Amino acid sequence: MTQPDFPHLEKLLVCSDGSPASEGAVNAGITLGTFTAARVFLLGVVNSPEIFSSIPSIPEVALELEEQALQRLEEYQKRAGAAGVTLETAVVSGITVAGAILEQTGIIKPDWLIMGRKGHTGLDRLLMGSVTRQVIGSSPCPVLVVPRQAELAFKKIMVAHDGSVFSEAAWRQTIPLAAKAESQVIAVSVARNSDRQADCQIALQHLEASAERHGIKLQAVLLEGRPFEQIIQAARENKVDLIVLGSHGRTGLARLLMGSVAERVTATVNCPVLVVKLPEEAAAT
């Protein structure tokens, strides 16, 4: 497979909290930077009350944290430079980490937001349990969640489709990736019971027809059981590089609005997961 080029990705925003768990997100951002002509923004978020709630707001402490963050970003810039990628870096703080990230998302308007699955918090909390979930729930763009040790590749992509508009949005994100990277796509639709099999089969037939029109190699798989369990098992058995899911959420709301399937898959698998939001124009109808 030749090196793919994804022209639909013009701006990428990578978020790092300075923890080892952010490494996967940073590496994914650099990888995408080598595949595209996209501008890659690397955001360091520090000194948030959400993280340091037990520490008084001391200017000296805040300055030291910012300097540490800048040093980390400079190291990432050197790593990216060696790969031929230029990172545009910034350090920000906010009332909450999620709030600071979402504010920058609104300013930069990236095509994808890239985050780690777990992060450093002063209270030993999981990023997935706090920041990432909030960001996915409110982000206006797809969020790529990357576990620490995961490598981003596109040889084998799994897309889950339940016949909903959310799943269709996920498929629309998959098309240019698979077409440009010449990926093998495994499309899964999970029927909770036998009554849902016909609907799932219709969804898979739609994907087969669409894939054929776009020249995409697609294997359709009908499964039955609890959707998140079946998706996780299928991803492991097929050793996929990337999973693409609809978020089942709406943009613009502060609370977590991911469906339980997307949340459980994202929090469990060892490969990157692209959580796709419903387009704002569809969400408004």
Topology (elements, then pairings):
Elements lengths: L10 E6 L6 H13 L3 E7 L13 H24 L4 E6 L4 H12 L3 E5 L11 H11 L4 E4 L9 E5 L4 H17 L2 E8 L5 H17 L3 E8 L2 H12 L3 E5 L13 H9 L4 E4 L3 H4 L2
Parallel strand pairs: 1-2, 1-4, 2-3, 4-5, 6-7, 6-9, 7-8, 9-10
Antiparallel strand pairs: 5-10
Helix pairs in contact: 3-4, 7-8
Describe the structure.
α4 links the parallel β4 (112-116) and β5. The protein has 285 residues and is of the alpha/beta class. It is built from nine helices and ten strands. The chain folds into two domains: 11-146, Rossmann fold, CATH 3.40.50.620; 156-283, 3-Layer(aba) Sandwich (Rossmann fold).
What keyword list fits this structure?
285 residues, Rossmann fold, 2 domains, 10 strands
Calculate the terminal CA-CA distance, rounded to whole Å.
Answer: 40 Å
Q: Give the H and E element order.
A: EHEHEHEHEEHEHEHEHEH
Provide a count of the helices: 9
Mean pLDDT: 84
Gyration radius, in Å: 19 Å
What's the CATH topology name of the largest domain?
A: Rossmann fold
- The quaternary state of the protein chains shown equals single chain
Q: Unreliable stretches, pLDDT < 50, 5 or more residues?
A: 119-128, 249-258, 281-285
Give the proportion of residues in helices. Answer: 40-55%
Number of strands: 10
CATH class descriptor of the largest domain: Alpha Beta
Tell me the fraction of residues in β-strands, as a range.
Answer: 15-25%
- Helix- and strand-based class? alpha/beta
Tell me the strand order in the biggest sheet: 3-2-1-4-5-10-9-6-7-8
Q: How many structural domains can be distinguished in the coordinates?
A: 2
Architecture of the largest domain, CATH level 2?
Answer: 3-Layer(aba) Sandwich
User: In the CATH hierarchy, what is the superfamily of the largest domain?
Assistant: HUPs
